[in-house]
Amino acid sequence: MKISIITSCFNREATIGQTIESVLSQDYEDIEYIIVDGASKDRSLEIINSYQGKITKVISEPDTGMYEGINKGIRLATGDVVGLLHSDDFFFDNHILSDIADVFCKTQADMVYGNGLYVDGKDTNRVIRNWISGNYRYWKVRIGWLPLHSTVYIKRTVMERLGLYDESYKIASDSELLLRYLYEERLHVEYLNKYVLKMRVGGLSTDAARRIQMWKEDVRLYKEHGFWGVPEKLMKMGWKIPQFIEAKLKRSFTND
C-alpha cells in the first residue's frame, strides 16, 4: 500500500528541514512524498531542493493559501492513502506510517486517525496541548467533536469521490472536510491510539490575530451543513479544554 504524504510550505526555512527529515526517516518503504511550496521568499525552496532525489515531487508557485497548495498535492498523488504533514510539524517517531498502514490493511478502513501534541515552537519537548482524539462516534460529531486533522489519513479514492478541501475557507477548511466526511457520509473510520506527530504552536489556527476569522468560519461551516452554528462552535471549543489542562498537569509533575 502506497502512502502519499503532502507538505504545504510557505516561508518555513526554520522548520521545513526537520519536517522533511521526519518523513525520510520513516521505516515504511512505500511512501510518495509531495511538497507544494507557495513561492517562498526565504530559503525554504533552497532547503527543499537540497533533498533532490529523495522527494517524489516538488512544486513551487504562487497560490491563494495553504488549502490550494494541499489540493494541488492531492491531485498529483498516486498513493492508496493520503496524509498531510505541515511544514511546522514532524512525526512523533519513525514507525508512524508503518502503524497507520497496518491499521488500513487489517481493517480495510476508509479513514484512520490518531493523537497529536502541540508543542512550544522553540522547545519541542515542552507540550502545550495534549490532543487525545478518542474513539469516533457519529453522535460526537454532532456536538462539536472532530479528530486532530493532521493525524488523519484517508483513502485517495474516498477523497476523489467526496471532494477535496473547500478553498473558500482560509483557516477552517480542514474542519469543513472532516465534518463533511464524518457526519454526512458513513465511512469506515478507525482510531489509532498513538501519538502521530508534534505540531509547533503558531500556525494559522493558533494565531490570536486570526481567531476571530476562525470563529466566523467555524460558525459558517456548521450552518452550511445544517447545524445551528454557534452552539456547535462552543461545544467544539469545549472539547479542547481538557487537552490544555492535561498538558499543564504533566508539565507540573515533570517540574516537581
What are the main properties of this structure?
256 residues, alpha/beta, Spore Coat Polysaccharide Biosynthesis Protein SpsA, Chain A, 9-stranded mixed beta sheet, 9 helices, 40% helix, 21% strand, globular
Describe the structure.
InterPro entries: Glyco_trans_2-like, Nucleotide-diphossugar_trans. Pfam families: Glycos_transf_2. Keywords: Glycosyltransferase, Transferase. Its EC number is 2.4.-.-. By secondary structure, the protein is an alpha/beta fold. The protein has a single domain, classed as Spore Coat Polysaccharide Biosynthesis Protein SpsA, Chain A (Alpha-Beta Complex). It is 40% helix and 21% strand. It is built from 9 helices and 9 strands. Strands 1, 2, 3, 4, 5, 6, 7, 8 and 9 form a 9-stranded mixed beta sheet that branches. α7 runs parallel beside α8. The longest helix is centred in the C-terminal third of the chain and has 26 residues. The N and C termini lie far apart (45 Å). The model has no long low-confidence stretch (mean pLDDT 94).
